[in-house]
TrEMBL record:
GO terms, biological process: heme biosynthetic process
Family, as annotated: Belongs to the ferrochelatase family.
Pathway named in the protein's UniProt entry: Porphyrin-containing compound metabolism; protoheme biosynthesis; protoheme from protoporphyrin-IX: step 1/1
Protein name: Ferrochelatase
HAMAP family: Ferrochelatase
Amino acid sequence: MECVRSGVLDLQCSAEFSGKSGSTRSCGKASCYANFAGSTKYEQNLHSKVKPWVLSASGTSSFVHRSPVLKHRHNLVVRSTSADVCTTFDENINGVSSHAVEDKVGVLLLNLGGPETLNDVQPFLFNLFADPDIIRLPRLFRFLQRPLAKLISTFRAPKSKEGYASIGGGSPLRRITDDQANALKVALKKKNLEADIYVGMRYWYPFTEEAINQIKKDKITKLVVLPLYPQYSISTSGSSIRVLQNIVKEDPYFAGLPISIIESWYQREGYVKSMADLIENELSIFSTPEEVMIFFSAHGVPLTYVKDAGDPYRDQMEDCIALIMEELRSRGTLNDHTLAYQSRVGPVQWLKPYTDEVLVELGQKGVKSLLAVPVSFVSEHIETLEEIDMEYKELALESGIENWGRVPALGCTSSFISDLADAVVEALPSASAIATRKAIDTDPDMDMMHSLTKMFFGSILAFLLLLSPRLILAVRNTLR
Ligand SMILES: C=CC1=C(C)c2cc3[nH]c(cc4nc(cc5[nH]c(cc1n2)c(C)c5CCC(=O)O)C(CCC(=O)O)=C4C)c(C)c3C=C
Ligand SMILES: [Fe+2]
C-alpha cells in the first residue's frame, strides 16, 4: 500500500471530475469521491510539471490523469482529496478480489477498423468522414456532414485504394485486433480473471454497435472499456467512447451496467518498457547503433483539435516520448531523438513538425542512420506498412539518409499484452454505472449558444418570410 502526501502519486481510489456543474458521489469507500461535470472543452491543467488533465467532454468519462514524471505504474492515476488517504488498487491486483465471484466480466477493445477489400475502401472512408469527431463542423452545419462525407470519400477513395492495394488489398487491422483480443483473454486468465473480450471498431466491421449487442446478449455484469490507442485524442478514443455513451444513454441495461473506461495508457510502465525493448532490438541491427537518430512518427491531428478543442493528444504524445527516452537512457541508450507527425489529410494545418519535412531536413543536416518508430498505434496498418515503409523510406533515402530501420508495432508482444491485462484488472474496481454520472455530455453554455444561434437565424428567416410578399411586390414594382 502506498501513501500519497503531495502532488505525485500512484493510484488512488478516487476519481475527480471537474467542471462547472459538478456534483459529488460516493463510490463506496470512505475516501472515494467522484465529482462529475459537463463541460465540452477538455480542460487541461498544465501549470504544474506533473500535468494532470481533466476530461469532461461530450463523449468521455472523466478521470484525472497525471503523466510524465510520475512513476508510470498504473493506467488510472487520479488525485486524492485528502493527503492522508492511502489506498491503492495494488491490494486487488493479484487476487482480483474487488469484484464479486458471480460477476460476468467483459472487456471491450475499441479500435478504428479498416477496409478488408478494395471495395470496402469508399464506404469505410464515408464512415470515417461522417464522424463529427473527424470532420468537426459547427452545429449549424451538421446537416452537411453526410453529403460532405460522401463527396470527400468519393474523391479520396482512388488514392486510398492504391495504398491498400500496395499492402495486399486491405487493412490487417481486424486480424491483428482479434489476435490481441485472444492474447488478452489468455493473459487475463493467467491473472485469475475470466473475461469475455469484445472488439468494437469505429468505422468498419465488427462495428462498436455489434460488440455492444453481443455484450448485452451475453449478460455481462461488469465492463472494462479499453481503446487500443495509447494516447487519447478526440478523433480516436474520444469518438469511440462517444458512440458508446450514446448507446448507454438509450439503453437501460447499459445505463445500469458498471463500466470502467481506460482512456489512455501510454504512461504505463509495461507499455513504455515494451516500446523501449522494441527500439533497442532494432537499434542493435545497425552497424553503429549509437549514431542512429530515433525518429518517433505519430499520427497527426488538425491543429485546431489541440488549440481550440483542448485535445490532450499532443501533450500526451510528448509525455509518452519523454517516458520512452527516459527508459532508454536508464538502460544506457543515449541516442538523439525527434518527434514528428504524419498522415495529414486535407488543406488545414495539422500538428507540426510534419514527418516528411523533418526527414528531408535531417538528410540535409547530414544524419546518415535513422530508426522510424510509429508511436500512436499498436498494430501494423496502412500508415506503417505503406506510408512509413514505402513513402517515407524512399524520401529519407533520397534526402541523404543511408541506413533506414523501422520499429514494428507492438501487436501481440507478450510484455505489452500482459500490461494491458494488468490495466484491465486495475480498472475493474472503479467500474460504475454511467447512468449515475450526471450530465456527462451536456454543456449548458453550449446548449445556450446553440439555442441563441437558432433563435437568431430563425428570427432572420421569419422576418424575411414575413417580408417576402412585400419584397416580391417591391421588386416587381421596381422592375416595371
Ligand atoms: C492515433 C491514431 C490516429 C489518429 C489521431 C487519427 C486521426 C485522423 N485520421 C484521419 C483520416 C484518416 N485516417 C485513416 C486511416 C487510419 N487512421 C489511423 C489512426 C489515427 N487516425 C489508422 C490506424 C488508420 C489506418 C487504418 C487501416 O486501415 O489500416 C484514413 C484512411 C487511409 C487513408 O486514406 O489514408 C483516413 C482518411 C483524420 C482526418 C484524423 C483526424 C481528424
Ligand atoms: Fe487516421
